[in-house]
């Protein structure tokens, strides 16, 4: 049983470390005015002042947000101000640029999150995995009378509070997320202090 618990703990840590690998190209904050800037290069140098770029953006649900609209040529980059930024999720973009006789095409993504942090959605998933893991460890520690397991669960609860504090759950208000973080910290601190006292008292 101890080996299985150790394996579960290693898996959770690996998932937590890997979330940044799948981060989008850019991340913005919900509600902000977003001016999307795309660099334009032609044969290793910036595109000319006469180059044109057209942008298409799909919402996270696949519907069209921007349909083949002309971007503003700022020489080093082409930019386009998004019509809104209220929908959280990953947006899929494509840009086609024409500069003289040369044509270029690129695809990329960007995220809109509640905080502007990349990988927020993945962190939400990791949060629930870690909280579930903490509950499992606490239950095993109490059932086996093992204070080490119980103390370990307290640290996991505290880490869970840090995650929800810095990567809020997108469907909850900021106040609820902060309250959730403090509750988790309180649970972790209570378990840690109580278990440590009992462990020292039995020594």
How does this structure look, described?
- The structure is a single chain.
- With 203 residues, the protein is α+β, with helices and mostly antiparallel strands.
- The chain contains 4 helices and 10 strands, in the order αββββββββββααα.
- The chain has helices at 2-18, 120-144, 147-166, 174-201, and strands spanning 26-29, 35-39, 41-42, 45-46, 52-58, 64-70, 72-73, 77-81, 89-99, 102-113.
- The strands form 3 sheets. A 5-stranded mixed beta sheet has the order 1-10-9-5-6, with no helix packed on it.
- Helix 1 runs antiparallel to helix 2, helix 2 runs antiparallel to helix 3 (147-166) and helix 3 runs antiparallel to helix 4 (174-201).
What's the helix and strand layout?
Blueprint: H1 2-18, E1 26-29, E2 35-39, E3 41-42, E4 45-46, E5 52-58, E6 64-70, E7 72-73, E8 77-81, E9 89-99, E10 102-113, H2 120-144, H3 147-166, H4 174-201
Parallel strand pairs: 1-10
Antiparallel strand pairs: 2-8, 3-4, 5-6, 5-9, 7-8, 9-10
Helix pairs in contact: 1-2, 2-3, 3-4
Notable characteristics:
2 domains; three-stranded antiparallel sheet; Immunoglobulin-like; 4 helices; 203 residues; alpha+beta; five-stranded mixed sheet
Largest sheet features: 5 strands, mixed
Average per-residue pLDDT, rounded, comes to 80
Element string (H = helix, E = strand): HEEEEEEEEEEHHH
User: Considering DSSP H and I runs of 4 or more, what fraction of the residues is helical?
Assistant: 40-55%
Q: How is the largest sheet built, in terms of strand order? A: 1-10-9-5-6
Rg value: 24 Å
What would you call the shape? elongated
């Amino acid at each position: 049983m101890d080996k299985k618990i150790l394996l579960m703990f290693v898996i959770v840590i690996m998932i937590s470390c890997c979330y940044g690998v799948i981060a989008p190209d850019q991340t913005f904050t919900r509600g902000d005015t977003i001016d999307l800037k795309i660099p334009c290069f032609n044969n290793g140098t910036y595109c000319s002042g006469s180059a044109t770029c057209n942008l298409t953006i799909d919402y996270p649900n696949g519907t069209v947000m921007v349909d083949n609209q002309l971007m503003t040529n700022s020489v080093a980059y082409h930019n386009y101000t998004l019509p809104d930024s209220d929908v959280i999720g990953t947006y899929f973009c494509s840009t086609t640029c024409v500069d003289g006789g040369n044509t270029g095409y690129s695809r990329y993504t960007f995220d809109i999150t509640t905080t502007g942090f990349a990988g927020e959605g993945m962190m939400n998933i990791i949060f629930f995995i870690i909280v579930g893991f903490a509950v499992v460890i606490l239950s095993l520690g109490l059932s086996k009378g093992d204070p080490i397991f119980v103390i370990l669960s307290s640290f996991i609860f505290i880490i869970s509070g840090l995650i929800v504090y810095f990567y809020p759950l997108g469907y909850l208000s900021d106040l609820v997320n902060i309250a959730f973080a403090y509750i988790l910290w309180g649970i972790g601190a209570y378990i840690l202090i109580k278990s440590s006292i009992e462990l020292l008292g039995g020594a």
